[in-house]
Amino acid sequence: MLTVFNIQRFSLHDGNGVRTSIFFKGCPLRCLWCNNPESIDPLPSVMFDERLCNRFGECIKAADGRIYEADGALVIDREKIGDPGQLMDVCPSKALRVAGREMSAAEIAAGVEKDLPFYDMSSGGVTLSGGEPFAQGEELGELLLLLRDKRIHVSAETSLHVPWEKVSKYTSLVDMFLADLKHTHPLKFAQYTGGDAGLVLENFRKLDASGSAFVIRVPVVPGFNHSEPEIFSIIDFAAGLEHLSEIHLIPYHSLATEKYHMLGKAYTYKGFADVSKQELVAYADYASQMGITTKILN
Ligand code: SF4
Predict the structure, then answer these.
(1) Domain ranges, residue 89
(2) Listed residue (234, 211, 212, 230) closest to 290, CA to CA
(3) Could you tell me the distance, in angstroms and rounded to a whole number, from the CA of residue 130 to the centre of ligand 1?
(4) Of 96, 113, 136, which residue sits at a domain end?
């Protein structure tokens, strides 16, 4: 089974045309500014929005003592919840919900297929996202084969922070890789994402050698990589890749703060202003000088 936390239809921001984005649970990185904190844990996560809570108490009844009221507030003992699936649909006001459920490849493909006319009209398709799609199990291959059978264009957003074999077996089934390159310096990469820059850079070289089409996506994050030496170093690396289609620069924003709160986590990447598109123009100009088509996204 595949673990999915969201399927977003009619998405216009994750590749060409009208797309359906499938967000998978589980990520090998721990980026301090992560905008999808509900994606990180490979298991389903309990999210609670107290602004929507009507104190019906249905979750308290269903959770067998692991959700309770104290000092007028709802307390969720996430350590002891065990399988949050039991809480999936218990909250009538949707204040408490479970992010992540197991789905078969066939179930996902059947849902996606409904929008085939829109993909055809707009040169759209499906975007695999997350979390990290290539951290899913073997059933990802089944899904990709089903999409190929239906001639649906597939893009895959990836951190490339997985063993190369997890990607290489699917290169013939993915039409466009949208791969993150967050930093080239091993220490900085490790400090801010918990990962290994060497693995990512090596996977980029292998992806390039495979002949696959790919875009490099760079989240531009203040305090991490928002400086000319750091972004130029990424662009210099990109300039050496033969099959690179484009670079996409993605300005940092702090909109995910509320999601951390809903997951019972603290958002620790504080004190940084959102980055404007204007701040990225000098980076885009440098990439253009290096002969790389560049887009600044929202
Ligand atoms: S790679 Fe993406 S999903 Fe994973 S921790 Fe980093 S920002 Fe979050």
Answers:
(1) 46-96
(2) 234
(3) 8
(4) 96
